[in-house]
Amino acid sequence: MTFEEIKALDHQYVLQTYTRNELAIDHGKGAKLYDTEGKEYIDFTAGIGVCSLGYANERWARAIYDQAMKLGHISNLFYAEPYAKLAKRLVEGSGMAGAFFGNSGAEANEGMIKLARKYSYDKYGRGRATVITLKNSFHGRTITTLKATGQDHFHEFFFPFTEGFRYANANDLESIHAAAGDDVCAVMMELIQGEGGVNPLQKDFVQAVAALCAEKDWLLLIDEVQTGIGRTGTLFAYQQFDIQPDVVTFAKGIAGGLPFGGFLANEKCRNVLGPGNHGSTFGGNPMAAAAGQVVLDTLTPDFLAQVRAKGERLKKGIEALRSPYVSGVRGMGLMLGVGVQGMTHKELRDRLMANGLLTLTAGKDTLRLLPPLVISEEEIDQGLAIMARVMQ
Ligand SMILES: *Cc1c(COP(=O)(O)O)cnc(C)c1O
After folding, report:
1. What contacts 348, CB < 8 A, 6 or more positions away?
2. Is 188 in the pocket of ligand 1 (CB under 6 A)?
3. pLDDT computed for residue 59 by the predictor
4. Whole-model pTM?
């Protein structure tokens, strides 16, 4: 089908809930994508930080195929090897105690919020259910995670929202103190606010919040749906902030493109959710878990060091453009935000796309870069050359 045919079909039969790029992607290989006309693009999106191993990765595809031919799905009413092995890998790599598996980031965050409320209920009884989240955060699109998201424009239309969220300013400990109270059970935050504009939190702020949580017996809930699973150059970003969360969520990159997500709880929280408290029909799916195993096998210490080095190369390369359209570059590993000035971030994204480079936007004025973690230095340089053409 041609682009115009696909677009017409989409507009006639799909609910129009997305502003799509004027492009239909047909296939990919590594960090390159090809549209329906065969034009090649360097991909700095990886879905939205999902395709950590790039496209058409042989080991990944083989693991999914082999698992599909063995056991494609089985309910959580039975034991099965793939998710148990994956949980072991995640626990060992994170210093946490146990894993729960679902299917998406929002669902993972919902589960994490449920865990925090039950922890507090079990210990203190009712009335201690408020979760402090940060302004400019993003935690998902369910009714509860929309309310957890600290941006007013997400709190429209869908009333009534779930109660029990209060918002504080990022990097402002006083603001956390101001939101405190006897009704609080947890603080929930991203360590780099992704959708909100790729804003890394300050390490001293994060550590101070962790200390406050320990003091008040609030749970420290870290949303690593975007930052987790190698994206920032460590398995989880919190490992670079020298903190240990009570619960941490993951999703986007975990299965390299299959829908998968979940959370890890520490020793203190491992028995909070018991039989009947939480569950998922698809969660822990064997094919997704097999794919996740390949992703985790790939994230060796050497590979993670390369993610950090490649992120540095990309960041330095953008700074070296000395582009009048760039106000600054932020981020960690292969999660970078480029401040855009002199045109809108969407205009810049479209111009880059027309020249063969795919990027994302975030916040009001940020170009967001989340390349596949396997991207080569050569592909990074190709992307930089396109940026130089468009932005100098
Ligand atoms: C993407 C994202 C979510 C939502 O994940 P879905 O899989 O779309 O539900 C939640 N939190 C963060 C930090 C995200 O980046």
Report:
1. 325, 340, 359, 367, 390, 391
2. no
3. 98
4. 0.98
